[in-house]
Structure formats: structure tokens, C-alpha cells
Amino acid sequence: MKFYVGIGRFGLLIGESSSLKDKRRLVKSLLDRLGNSRMVAASEVGGQDSWKSGTVAVTCVSGSMDLVRGALDKARRTIESSGVEVIDAEQWILKPEDLDA
């Protein structure tokens, strides 16, 4: 069985946040929106104790590279439309030959 794995890491600047509680509320809302797409799994993976910045990672697995690429692009658009600024982003797509052990 052949499949592709997409991974995206997004460094965020959260300008609307005035406290750690605000930041956690905004990030939770963002993660919920990303998860509701049912195309990616998402988690906050860095900067949990900073109230102005953070890092979110998303993953997607599919038999179609185009679907994985589209899911990562849609995740980035969702993040950017949520009121946070993406200040750093990296994306990787692992191909079947990358995954053979």
C-alpha cells in the first residue's frame, strides 16, 4: 500500500492576545477549526508558555500527493484567516519511497 505523509509546522505571532489565557483560547479555537476539516490532525507543539507566540503542527496522510498538498495549503489558509500571523512555516511531504524501511 502506497501513501503520502504531509507535515506542516507554523510559527505564529498572536497579536490579539493580552494574556496566556487569551492565547490558549485563540489557539484552541484554531486547532478545533483545523481538526473540523477532517483532513488534518493539529496540535500546538511549541511556545505553550508564551502569550504572544506559538507553534502549531499539522499532519495529513493520503494515497494522493495532490490531496496531501491541498490539505496543507488549506491548513495554512485557515491559520492565516484566524487572526494570527504566520511568521515561519515549513512543509514536508514524505513519498512512499521515503517511507520504505
List its salient traits.
4-stranded antiparallel sheet, single chain, Alpha-Beta Plaits, 101 residues, alpha+beta
Percent strand equals: 35-45%
Strand line-up across the major sheet: 2-3-1-4
CATH topology: Alpha-Beta Plaits
> Structural class given helices, strands, pairing?
alpha+beta
**Would you tell me the overall average pLDDT?**
92
Q: Outline, from the CA principal axes?
A: elongated
CATH architecture: 2-Layer Sandwich
H-E order: EHEEHEH
How many domains? The number is: 1
Distance between the termini: 13 Å
Low-confidence stretches: none
With helices defined by DSSP (H or I, 4 residues minimum), what is the helix count?
A: 3
By CATH, the superfamily comes out as TT1725-like
What's the main sheet like? 4 strands, antiparallel
Structure summarized in a few sentences:
The chain is of the alpha+beta class and about 100 residues long. The chain is about 35% helix and about 35% strand.
Any overview of this molecule?
It contains 3 helices and 4 strands, in the order E-H-E-E-H-E-H. It has 101 residues and is an alpha+beta fold. The chain has a single domain, classed as TT1725-like (Alpha-Beta Plaits, 2-Layer Sandwich). It has a 4-stranded antiparallel sheet. Strand 2 (41-46) and strand 3 form a beta hairpin.
Please write out the topology.
Layout: E1 4-13, H1 20-36, E2 41-46, E3 53-62, H2 65-80, E4 85-94, H3 96-99
Antiparallel strand pairs: 1-3, 1-4, 2-3
